[in-house]
């Protein structure tokens, strides 16, 4: 028998205490959430400067009357809440209606539900949320239970309904996520410091905590990544039927929450299918197809087609009269637009800011620099395991996935996803406090980063450095105190220094780094 670990009990106590604090911090953010009207976002302007103040901030009119109190923050989550309400209260995915010569009407146009994230069916004039409908359909089922079981209405009892659902979709899964991560960290870490720092990062040093208070798809996707990976890593022994069923189901659920996470699902499927074809086809694949089929069914029920609304981005469903995305036509015609949604920077600048700059994966959560070292270590260690997979020499008593293989998978998946977003997007995910497109990869980087953290933790200076990196990560995570849908602290600092300002029209589409300013005559010529 291996020698007893004298610090195991102390670590378990630490996991319990810190995990409990993290879960209740997330719960506090949820039940205490309220969309705050921030004076700093309302810059006064005069006709003399064409609607811009001296700092180049666009004019925003201060509300003449008190806004309706709401725990819904912005376009992204309001679009989902509008669908939840419409499904239960009106029995339809339709959230608005346009008729010729009349004002647009419907939930999506009401105070507290107004959102840019909507599409229209040109033939019918019906508005829908642009978000994939599976998650909102599931949450509508919960709202139906709350409405018919307790008599709660999302209109009259807004906080009761919204907070209960957020606790269900963000709070409770976060607790299970931390529990499973603690088990994996304790199994695969080699130093006490490395294990404790990695678990502390999971609790307080990632944007999953920031986004606990808002309805979003990235947090559930991150939880599902752990739920899919844990059955394949937990013991090192051969995968049981139950392991394959659970892993398959959550591997299928991940891309229904966050479509680019299909790279992770494929990365799990291919090795299993290659080494264990029969068991994978009988158990993993059918379980994987269940949530994918459910997504297609919901898409068809909502839009009358199997593909999500995203597939029409740049088409008539998005670029209707009055749409925020209609400005894309002007960009294509050479007329620059203001706002981070139309940054349109050179790809070298965009890639820098997405990884190391104002929205950077490594600059906002620098503790992942240690994970980068861990991934490099695991890639080297994975070579023998990859060879065994390729020649199908993995014993029937041994798992296909181990930590080195998972590290190599993390490297490949991360590279594919990051390259995709660098070349296929230009707006950093819009108005958000972090690189939200990468949030679902957070648990992969935590687990794969263990060897790097353990290596750095060998020296006192290394331990101090890791603690400081974690501190800066926690700073970025807790900086958006009221609303996660706000610019990161680095971008706000650069704006104060007047180094970057996306709220000022760029001089030439595709040829600006985001801080070029027009003269007033230029602003007047292009209009607002």
Which regions are unreliable across 5 or more consecutive residues at pLDDT < 50?
47-56, 506-528
Percent of residues in beta strands: under 5%
Numbering strands along the chain, what is their spatial order in the largest sheet? 1-3-2
Distance between the termini: 73 Å
Mean pLDDT level? 88
The largest pleated sheet is described as: 3 strands, antiparallel
Protein architecture, described:
By secondary structure, the chain is mainly alpha-helical. It has one domain (8-35, 70-496). It contains 20 helices and 3 strands. It has helices spanning 8-31, 75-90, 133-150, 158-188, 192-204, 207-210, 218-233, 241-257, 262-275, 277-303, 327-332, 347-355, 361-364, 368-390, 403-424, 442-448, 450-456, 460-478, 489-496, 520-526; strands spanning 96-97, 118-121, 126-129. It has a 3-stranded antiparallel sheet with strand order 1-3-2. The longest helix is centred in the N-terminal third of the chain and has 31 residues, at 158-188. The radius of gyration is 24 Å and the shape is globular.
Gist of the model:
The protein is mainly alpha-helical. It contains 20 helices and three strands.
For the structure shown, list the relevant keywords.
single chain, 528 residues, mainly alpha, three-stranded antiparallel sheet, 3 strands, 55% helix, globular
């Amino acid at each position: 028998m291996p020698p007893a670990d004298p610090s195991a009990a102390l670590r378990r106590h630490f996991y319990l205490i810190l995990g409990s604090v993290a879960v209740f911090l997330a719960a506090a953010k949820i039940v205490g959430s309220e969309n705050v009207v921030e004076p700093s976002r309302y810059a006064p302007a005069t006709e003399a400067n064409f609607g811009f103040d001296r700092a180049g901030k666009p004019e925003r009119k201060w509300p003449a009357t008190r806004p309706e109190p709401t725990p819904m923050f912005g376009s992204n989550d309001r679009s989902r809440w509008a669908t939840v309400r419409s499904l239960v209260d009106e029995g339809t995915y339709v959230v608005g209606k346009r008729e010729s010569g009349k004002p647009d009407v419907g939930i999506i146009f009401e105070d507290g539900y107004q959102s840019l994230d909507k599409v229209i069916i040109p033939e019918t004039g019906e508005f829908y949320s642009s978000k994939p409908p599976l998650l909102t359909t599931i949450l509508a089922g919960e709202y139906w239970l709350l409405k018919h079981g307790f008599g709660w209405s999302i209109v009259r009892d807004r906080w009761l309904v919204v907070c209960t659902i957020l606790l269900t979709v963000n709070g409770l899964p976060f607790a299970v996520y931390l529990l499973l991560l603690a088990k994996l960290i304790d199994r695969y870490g080699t130093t006490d410091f490395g294990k404790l720092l990695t678990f502390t990062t999971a609790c307080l040093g990632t944007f999953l905590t920031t986004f606990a208070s808002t309805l979003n798809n990235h947090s559930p996707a991150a939880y599902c990544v752990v739920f899919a990976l844990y059955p394949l890593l937990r013991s090192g022994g051969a995968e049981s039927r139950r392991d394959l069923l659970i892993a398959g189901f959550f591997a299928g659920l991940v891309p229904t929450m966050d479509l680019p996470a299909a790279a992770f699902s494929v990365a799990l499927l291919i090795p299993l299918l290659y080494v264990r074809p029969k068991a994978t086809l009988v158990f993993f694949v059918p379980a994987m197809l269940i949530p994918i089929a459910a997504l297609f069914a919901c898409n068809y029920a909502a839009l009358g087609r199997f593909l999500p609304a995203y597939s029409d981005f740049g088409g008539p469903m998005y670029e209707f009269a009055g749409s925020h995305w209609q400005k894309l036509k002007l960009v294509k015609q050479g007329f620059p637009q203001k706002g981070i949604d139309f940054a349109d920077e050179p790809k070298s600048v965009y890639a820098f800011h997405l990884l190391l700059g104002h929205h950077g994966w490594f600059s906002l959560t620098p503790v992942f620099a240690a994970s980068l070292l861990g991934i490099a270590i695991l890639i080297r260690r994975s070579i023998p395991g990859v060879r065994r997979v390729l020649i199908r020499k993995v014993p029937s008593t041994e798992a296909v996935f181990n930590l080195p293989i998972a590290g190599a998978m993390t490297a490949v998946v991360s590279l594919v996803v990051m390259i995709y977003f660098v070349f296929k997007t230009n707006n950093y995910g819009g108005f958000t406090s972090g690189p939200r497109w990468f949030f679902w990869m957070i648990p992969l980087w935590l687990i794969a980063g263990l060897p790097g953290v353990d290596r750095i933790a060998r020296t006192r200076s290394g331990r101090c450095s890791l603690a400081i990196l974690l501190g800066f990560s926690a700073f970025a995570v807790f900086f958006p105190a009221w609303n996660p849908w706000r610019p990161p602290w680095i971008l706000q600092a650069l704006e104060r220094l007047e180094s970057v300002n996306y709220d000022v029209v760029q001089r030439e589409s595709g040829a600006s780094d985001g801080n070029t300013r027009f003269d007033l005559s230029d602003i007047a010529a292009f209009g607002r």
